[in-house]
Each structure stands twice: as C-alpha cells, then as structure tokens.
Amino acid sequence: MRVRVFADPGVLARALAANISRALADDPALVLGLPTGRTPIPLYRELVRLHRAGRADFSRAATFNLDEFLGLDPRDPHSYRAFMQRQLFDHVNLPPRRIHFLNGATRDVEHECRRYERAIERAGGIDLQILGLGMNGHIGFNEPGRALVARTHCTRLKPATRRANAALFDNRVSAVPREALSMGMATILHAKRIVLVATGATKARCVQRMIEGPVTPRLPASFLQLHRNAEVWVDQGAAGNYPTRRSSFRRSSTSSPIASRTTSCARRRRESDCV
Ligand code: GLP
Predict the structure, then answer these.
(1) 214: closest CA among 132, 151, 133, 137?
(2) Residues whose CB falls within 8 Å of the CB of residue 103, separated by 6 or more in sequence, listed in order
(3) CB crowding 44-74: b at 16 or more within 10 Å, else e
(4) Which residues pair with 182 in a beta bridge?
(5) Pocket test residue of 102, 138, 205, 275 for ligand 1, highest count of atoms within 8 A of CB
(6) Which of 46, 68, 127, 143 is catalytic?
(7) Least CB-packed of 22, 23, 41, 43 within 10 Å?
(8) What's the pLDDT at 242?
(9) What is the pTM for the complete model shown?
(10) CA of 141 to the centre of ligand 1 (A)
(11) Pocket lining: 144 vs ligand 1, CB cutoff 6 Å
(12) Whose CA is nearest to atom 11 of ligand 1?
C-alpha cells in the first residue's frame, strides 16, 4: 500500500479533493465510491468549494455509497443518504439518477443487495473508491469477525460501531439501528483505485495494524493490502509514531511504498485484534 502523510485533515482534504477533480477532468463519467462518517466531511466541503469555483464537474459522474442503516427511510434525517445530501449531493451537479444508494427501508434485503451489485456492474465498476476507517478496523460496515462477506449484504453492527455512530442520532446509542446494509469486501476490492482516509490520533493504532499487520478478517481494513492500487492518506495524528525503523512510511506529502517486512509470529498474534 502506498501511504501519504499530511500535516492536518484540512491539507489532506484539499489534496484529495484536487486529486478527485483531476480524475473527473480526465474521465467525466468517473464512478466514485463514497463513505460517510466524520472523516470525509472536510473532503466533501472541499469538493463543494471546487464545484462552486467551476473546478469540479459532476454532471456525467456516478456515485455509489458504501452502506446504509437497515430500517431507515432514505428521507430519514438520521440516514446516511440524508447525511450525503447535506454534505455533498445538495451542493454539486450530480444527476440524481446517477446517485446510487442502498435502500435501508427495503422489505427484501436479499433483492436489495443483488440490485446494488448489479447496478455497480452495469456502471462498469467503481473507478475510485474513497474509504473511511472504523475504530475497530471496519470499512463500510464490514465488521471484524471470523470471516468476511464478499458481496453486498446485511450485517449486525458491533456495539462499538453503534457507539461511534451515535452522533448521527443525537448521541443516543439506543437509537442507532442494530443492522445495516454494506458493500462486501470483494465489492470494495474490485474498485480500480482505492484511497482510505484516516485522521486523528485515535486511528493511529488501527492504521499501523492495517498496514503492517497480517491480513485478517479480525481487522477488515487489512484486506486492502491485497489490492494492487490502494493508497492510505493520513494526517500526522493518524500516522502515529511513524516512521518506524521497519517502515518506509514517510512524514511528507509524497507517496511512499510501505516496505515489505517480516513480522514475528508473536507480534502477528498480538496484532490480530485492533481494539
Ligand atoms: C461508519 C461508516 C464507515 C466509516 C466509519 C468511520 O461506521 N459505516 O464507512 O468509515 O464510520 O467513521 P468516522 O469517519 O466518523 O471515524
């Protein structure tokens, strides 16, 4: 994985928004995979700014969001769909028919998951997938466990994930749905390019294990190590104590490949849990 370290979340967001606007200029019909959460908010703010300045045209682009809470109507203000409307969709020129979302209000979960997979396929796959990182190493809502699910599916949320999402529900953890729909790990790994963004010191431990630890379903983000075009963009906080002696992770805004390394069995065992 290639890692880029930025001075702070604002610098990172500006660089990533500029990168996305260049990708849109190169391919106006770009298919973007998008995350929710606190992390991408500065990125969406920057994209809106670039759009208003005439430097990001979404008129031929398409988007697929990673996940949605089960049982919430898209118009519910607590839904991820409503979050995306507020943060990005209401402020740029994405045609509504090219905004794709899992419908949390579906009565037929299986059908809804298949529909989403087919829609991604019909769009020609995801060109650029932006990801956040859950505190327990989840991406989308692919939660840590003994095994991961390959394709779009319904998943039970871990208590820690429900707590982390409580802010969207006026800080009432009990109001956070217990289940969600999410793209699967293979759906994510099929994207042509992936950029995972993590900011803040609370993510540092997870970031390190994602990059240096073993590929394990107990830390779903570690599967990104298998992707040939995956990048990790972090701020100084999430970079933690890097560079370590064993890593080529650099404190600069330039890309640097993470050196392949040997990790002792004992250390691998210690790293098998993120939280
Ligand atoms: C949620 C989302 C993830 C997101 C994660 C991190 O659980 N389902 O897609 O990456 O939160 O959120 P934050 O960016 O707020 O730390």
Answers:
(1) 137
(2) 68, 74, 112
(3) bbbbbebbeeeebbbeebbbbbbbbbbebeb
(4) 67, 153
(5) 138
(6) 143
(7) 22
(8) 62
(9) 0.90
(10) 8
(11) no
(12) 37
CA of 165 to the centre of ligand 1 (A): 8
Give yes or no for residue 37 CB within 6 A of ligand 1.
yes
Q: Is 199 in the pocket of ligand 1 (CB under 6 A)?
A: no
**CA–centroid distance, residue 87 to ligand 1 (Å):** 15
- Answer for the pair 230, 196: CB distance below 8 angstroms, yes or no: yes
Q: Single out the residue of 134, 128, 138, 94 nearest to residue 16, CA to CA.
A: 128
Q: Is the CB of 33 under 6 A from ligand 1?
A: no
Q: Are 94 and 51 in contact (CB under 8 A)?
A: no
Q: Look up residue 7 and give its two tokens.
A: 């001075």
Interatomic CA distance for residues 159 and 245, integer angstroms: 35
Distance of CA 171 to the CA centre of its chain: 22
Q: Which protein residue has the closest C-alpha to ligand 1 atom 10?
A: 132
Taking only the tens of pLDDT, the chain with its 275 residues reads 999 999 999 999 999 999 999 999 999 999 999 999 999 999 999 999 999 999 999 999 999 999 999 999 999 999 999 999 999 999 999 999 999 999 999 999 999 999 999 999 999 999 999 999 999 999 999 999 999 999 999 999 999 999 999 999 999 999 999 999 999 999 999 999 999 999 999 999 999 999 999 999 999 999 999 999 999 999 999 999 666 544 445 554 444 433 333 334 334 334 333 33
